[in-house]
Write a structure and sequence with these properties.
With 422 residues, the chain is mostly helical. 65% of the residues lie in helices and 10% in strands. It contains 11 helices and 11 strands. The strands form 5 sheets. Strands 5-6-7 form a 3-stranded antiparallel sheet. A two-stranded antiparallel ribbon has the order 1-2. Strands 3-4 form a two-stranded antiparallel sheet. The protein is rod-shaped and about 205 Å long. The protein starts with a strand and ends with a strand. 14% of the residues are buried.
């Protein structure tokens, strides 16, 4: 006997058996008999897909916690602290499915980018080892060769300038030599007068003074001229010696073959450097390809891990939750809003199979008390109603069945909350 008492502020329940034994914790005892959810098989069978899914989830009474899901996934998942297992797994499945979609999109982008970069390289290209060291060595050789050629070009310019100076100096030397020779010839032909003798003669020959003085003036002028000539010759000789020294110090004719050879070597080095630069460019492209390929491989690894989690929360754990619910229906599954048995939608099963599945769930939900309440039986068509009465007649359960309509033989009529006939 179960009695419940309501007051304005409280409510209480008492459970007593036929011998008068009062059950402690009566509400817990009743929950153990009935469960905490009243499963109406007809409401489940006739409901819309989304409502049917919600009824089944609630009836299963299998919960999952965010903590357990995070531990299983190995990373955080945006979920409430706890909830119906299939709903929690479904949210986790959507979360990882969305992430996998993003990762797969990134994977395709990286693969496409890697392929496009690879098209820039020759077919079958493999990087040359040590190309950077080769580039440095070649640049150093080119720098040394350019310095050497610059020196040779400076020598060439100096040689050209020396050739001009040589012509001028040789012309000047020839003129100086001619002037010196003429001056020496003039000096050699010149006889130096006896000035003292003439002075005596001037004294002795005062009569010839005027003539002697005239001769003296001429002689003095000649001596001065000879002195000037001697100075000029001395200067020309000094200049000639300097010009000869300068001429001797001038570089010889420039060897153009040496410069041409070195320029040929330099051109070869520059060609080699261009080949190396081209190879370095190819290697930079190759390195870009390698980075993209590694990123694609990383994305592929992530996609694989996410695929495992998608499968885990989309199939494995929901199947485990259904097994833990101990529903006596093999192949029962929830996919989105669809409830299936053996992969077939409940709506596509035969009337017999639909009723068998629905009543099996109801029996499993009844727990210890073999009692099933069926409300709204008038909504069943004749085929389903016949199948319901057939399956309910011999399963050992007691059914409370209600319907709206005119009472039939053996039915109890309830009107306005009271038993009207029966």
């Amino acid at each position: 006997r179960v009695s419940r008492v309501w007051t304005h502020k409280t409510t209480s329940v008492a459970v007593k058996d036929a011998r008068g034994f009062v059950r402690p914790a009566p509400q817990g005892y009743l929950d153990g008999l009935f469960g905490n959810f009243a499963f109406n098989p007809l409401a489940f069978l006739l409901a819309e897909k989304k409502q049917r899914r919600e009824i089944l989830l609630k009836a299963m009474d299998v919960t999952a916690t965010k903590e357990a899901i995070v531990a299983d996934a190995g990373e955080d998942v945006p979920l409430p602290p706890s909830g119906p297992a299939l709903e929690m797994y479904g949210e986790a499945h959507k979360f990882f499915y969305s992430r996998r979609t993003d990762v797969n999109r990134r994977l395709k982008q990286k693969q496409a980018a890697a392929a496009e970069v690879l098209k820039k390289l020759p077919e079958g290209y493999k990087p040359v080892e040590g190309i950077d060291e080769m580039a440095v060595a070649t640049r150093e050789l080119i720098s040394e060769k350019e310095t050497e050629i610059a020196g040779l070009e400076a020598e060439k310019r100096a040689a050209a300038k020396a050739a001009e100076s040589r012509v001028k100096l040789m012309d000047r030397i020839a003129k100086k030599e001619a002037a010196i020779a003429a001056g020496k010839k003039e000096i050699a032909a010149f006889q130096e007068p006896d000035i003292e003798g003439l002075r005596k003669r001037v004294e002795d020959l005062r009569l010839l003074l005027a003539k002697a003085e005239e001769g003296l003036d001429v002689a003095v002028r000649q001596v001065r001229e000879i002195t000037d000539i001697r100075c000029m010759v001395s200067d020309d000789e000094a200049t000639l010696a300097g010009d000869r020294d300068t001429l001797a110090a001038l570089p010889g004719e420039f060897d153009n073959e040496t410069l041409a050879f070195e320029e040929t070597v330099l051109a070869g080095l520059k060609g080699q450097r261009k080949d190396i630069d081209d190879e370095q460019t190819r290697q930079r492209i190759w390195n870009e390809h390698v980075v993209l390929r590694e990123e694609a491989e990383d994305a592929e690894d992530q996609a694989g891990k996410l695929s495992f989690l998608v499968e885990r929360f989309g199939n494995d754990l929901p199947a485990q939750a259904l097994r833990e619910a101990k529903l006596p229906i093999e192949g029962l599954a929830i996919a989105g809003d669809d409830v299936t048995v053996g992969g077939i939608l409940i709506d596509q099963l035969s009337a017999e199979e639909q009723m068998r599945v629905t009543l099996s769930i109801a029996r499993a939900m009844a727990k210890e008390l073999p009692l099933v309440c069926v409300d709204g039986v008038e909504r069943l068509d004749d085929e389903h109603f016949a199948e319901f009465t057939k399956q309910a007649a011999s399963d050992g359960f007691q059914y409370f069945v209600t319907r709206v309509g005119t009472p039939r033989k053996g039915e109890i009529e309830v009107a306005a909350g009271k038993v009207a006939a029966g």
